[in-house]
């Protein structure tokens, strides 16, 4: 028997999913929650028997991307399968970077959904064709081709906070000249022309942890 958790902020979706999955003999919905924070709270004391979390992406308090990231940090044995209506790059890439094991869409039929859950639990990576198409069409993003160093990531985090070069140099205990060099490298690697665009890029693609 596979034990799973449903996380979606729409109750009607959760109830519908529970009904559909109740028709199977080997998938058991142990709990359902309307946001990632509640899911993590439950798992603190009940994670051993959970095989998979089926989660939406856009939710209050904690979205599916952050839920995935924390789940993979704390409970590596639990699989994460995204079930969402969103098929744009700005959602797809961040959740896979967070560690998602699969990404399917809500429009798929029941048999495909059930099989996807089983396949992910058994160790397969499951990606709906519509999602694969987006990944193939967009190719690698600049920050995936040009990996930021640990220090560059730290500088970018400070830039997102709105810190000046002087403030960054004081926070990271380096010279202002060194900060300027890092900023230049960051702009080149992200293929943007200024700090504002770097901030927008970092937030859009969720490339730093706050």
Automatic annotation (TrEMBL):
Q: Which residues cross the membrane?
A: none
Tell me which SMART domains the record gives.
Answer: HTH_LUXR (SM00421), REC (SM00448)
Q: Gene3D superfamilies under this entry?
A: 3.40.50.2300
Record PTM 4-aspartylphosphate, positions in chain: 56
For this UniProt record, the keywords arranged alphabetically read as follows:
DNA-binding, Phosphoprotein, Transcription, Transcription regulation
Q: What GO MF annotations does this protein's record show? A: DNA binding
Give the record's GO biological process terms.
phosphorelay signal transduction system; regulation of DNA-templated transcription
The record places domain HTH luxR-type at 141-206
Q: Which top-rank group of organisms is this from?
A: Bacteria
Q: Which residues does the UniProt record annotate as the domain Response regulatory?
A: 3-121
- What is the name of this protein? DNA-binding NarL/FixJ family response regulator
Q: Which organism is it from?
A: Jeotgalicoccus coquinae
């Amino acid at each position: 028997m596979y034990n799973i958790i449903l996380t979606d902020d729409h109750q009607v979706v959760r109830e519908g999913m529970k009904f559909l999955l109740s028709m199977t003999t080997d998938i058991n919905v142990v709990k359902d929650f309307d946001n990632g924070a509640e899911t993590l709270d439950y798992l603190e004391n009940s994670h051993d028997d959970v095989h998979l979390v089926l989660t939406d992406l856009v939710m209050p308090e904690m979205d599916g991307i952050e839920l995935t990231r924390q789940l993979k940090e704390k409970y590596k044995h639990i699989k994460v399968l995204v079930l969402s209506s969103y098929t744009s790059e700005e959602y797809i890439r961040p959740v896979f970077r967070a560690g998602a094991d699969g990404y399917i869409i809500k429009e798929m039929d029941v048999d495909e959904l059930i099989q996807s859950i089983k396949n992910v639990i058994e160790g397969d990576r499951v990606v709906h064709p519509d999602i694969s198409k987006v990944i193939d069409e967009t190719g690698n993003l600049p920050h995936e081709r040009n990996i930021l160093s640990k220090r560059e990531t730290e500088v970018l985090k400070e830039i997102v906070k709105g810190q000046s070069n002087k403030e960054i140099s004081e926070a990271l205990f380096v010279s202002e000249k060194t900060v300027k060099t890092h900023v230049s490298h960051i702009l080149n690697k992200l293929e943007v022309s200024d700090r504002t665009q770097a901030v927008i890029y970092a937030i859009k693609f969720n490339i730093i942890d706050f």
